[in-house]
Amino acid sequence: MSIVIHKILGYKHVDLEVDNVTVARVLNGSSLALCASTLMQMIKDFLARDWKVTVSHVPREVNMVANKLASLSCGLPLGMTSYTTPPASVDPLLLVDIM
């Protein structure tokens, strides 16, 4: 994934919004909770690559489109999924966002 994002798309700055405040704190280095987790260490290693990553907490209720996209990804193989148009199940949430 880092090769796709970094090398092909050329991103140098990524804003990572997470809906778990504890995870945001751990990734920002302000909490030791979950630090022993192998998954958290893998995520930290990924974030330490040659780019700037800003991690922030955004409650799930505030970012329903991202939450829906994340739930749609559960049945997909590991990797990056890109949409040229939003999936139909996201349309109602996008309408709520613009109002």
From TrEMBL:
Q: Which InterPro entries match?
A: RNase_H-like, RNase_H-like_dom_plant, RNaseH-like_sf, RNaseH_domain
Matches recorded under SUPFAM superfamilies: Ribonuclease H-like
Question: Do you know which CDD domains this protein is assigned to?
Answer: RNase_H_like
Q: Which Pfam families is this protein grouped with?
A: RVT_3
Q: Where's the RNase H type-1 domain?
A: 9-71
Q: Which domain of life is it from?
A: Eukaryota
PANTHER family of this UniProt entry?
OS05G0353850 PROTEIN, PUTATIVE-RELATED
What is the recorded name of this protein? RNase H type-1 domain-containing protein
Q: Which species is this record about?
A: Hibiscus sabdariffa (roselle)
Organism taxonomic ancestry: Eukaryota, Viridiplantae, Streptophyta, Embryophyta, Tracheophyta
